Amino acid sequence: MSRKTALRIKILSNELNRKVAELLKEDGEPSSGIQMRILNFIHRKNHDSAPVYQKDIEQEFDIRRSTASGILQRMEKRAFIERQSCKEDNRLKAIFLTAAGQQKVKENINKLENFDDLLIKDIPEEELTIFFQLLEKLSENSKKINIDKGGN
Fold first, then answer.
1. DSSP category for residue 150
2. Exposed/middle/buried for 52, CB within 10 Å: 0-12, 13-18, 19+?
3. What is the bridge-based pairing of β-strands 81-85 and 93-97?
4. Which residues contact 23 (CB under 8 A, 6 or more apart)?
């Protein structure tokens, strides 16, 4: 059997990303999957008492300023977020979740937890333990690999 470890991990990652995007998508809106991921990101940052700015979202999701701006405007229109001027610099707007945004995040978390439960269904705990140990080792090995400019 040909292993092609990195390729198989990439294929599984793509598969899972598509399923999660489908799971979080709502009302058939094409950008709602990314909106839901951004809501979850804001929730995590706000939960850690860290302010969130548009530039943070641009960096986290590797999207252009105009894309982030459009997504945030749609989220504001849906009353999921609000932007507040910073005391130190009025040009900066911190992004916070509204009550509706908090509710949507709770729904997302429930959906993702159910998805995870279905994903590991019928896999014995011992195998899951080994799987996570292997993932950690693969990650460690990947970080140790130095690839020169020649592709080696």
1. T
2. buried
3. antiparallel
4. 111, 112, 115
23-139: CATH topology is Arc Repressor Mutant, subunit A (1.10.10)
pTM of the model: 0.68
Q: What is the DSSP letter of 2?
A: -
Report yes or no: 38 and 75 within 8 Å, Cβ to Cβ: yes
Task: Round to whole Å and give the CA distance between 97 and 127.
Answer: 38
Write out pLDDT tens, residues 23-65.
877 665 655 778 888 999 999 998 887 889 999 999 999 999 9
Domain ranges of the chain: 23-139
Query: What separation in angstroms does the CA of 55 have from each of 24, 62, 63, 66, 102?
Result: 23, 10, 10, 11, 21
Which one, of 42, 20, 45, 44, lies nearest residue 33 by Cα? Answer: 20
Residue whose token pair is 């009550």: 99
Q: What is residue 83's three-state secondary structure?
A: strand
3-state secondary structure of 92: coil
